[in-house]
Design brief:
The chain is an all-beta fold. 0% of the residues lie in helices and 49% in strands. The chain is built from no helices and eleven strands. Strands 2, 4, 5, 6, 9, 10 and 11 form a seven-stranded mixed sheet that branches. β7 and β8 (78-83) form a beta hairpin.
Length: 124
């Protein structure tokens, strides 16, 4: 089991950038793949991006590909999500989560530990 804490959310304008961070702690935190999900009001929680435990593989939802970049700093035990060219439809609560199911990192049900979430609001 790991603990995850997100930070970096806020209110920005359309076209701006924002960087989210996820601090991952726990004795075995280096074994986990980490993903980012988001949930807008009235919508289901959806996959945004994920990174393999070794940092060699990145996965993105089509809606953010080319605009968002996920990165991992193993020494600091953080996984970041750089979000560029933000749009109003990116407005949501963003969650980071951890999984040992390396083959299904795009599936919400594969994740067993979640952070509390951080709000991102993009005004148009």
């Amino acid at each position: 089991q790991v603990q995850l804490v997100e930070s970096g959310g806020g209110l920005v304008q359309s076209g701006d950038s924002l960087r989210l961070s996820c601090a991952v702690t726990g004795r075995t935190s280096s074994r986990y793949a980490v993903g980012w999900f988001r949930q807008a009001p009235g919508k289901e929680r959806e996959f945004v991006a994920a990174m393999s435990r070794d940092g060699d593989h990145e996965y993105y939802a089509d809606s953010v590909k080319g605009r968002f970049t996920i990165s991992r700093n193993s020494a600091q035990r953080t996984v970041s999500l750089q979000m560029n060219t933000l749009k109003a439809e990116d407005t949501a609560v963003y969650y980071c989560a951890a999984t040992l199911d390396y083959l299904r990192v795009k599936l919400r049900r594969a994740y067993h530990d979640w952070g509390q979430g951080t709000q991102v609001t993009v005004s148009s």
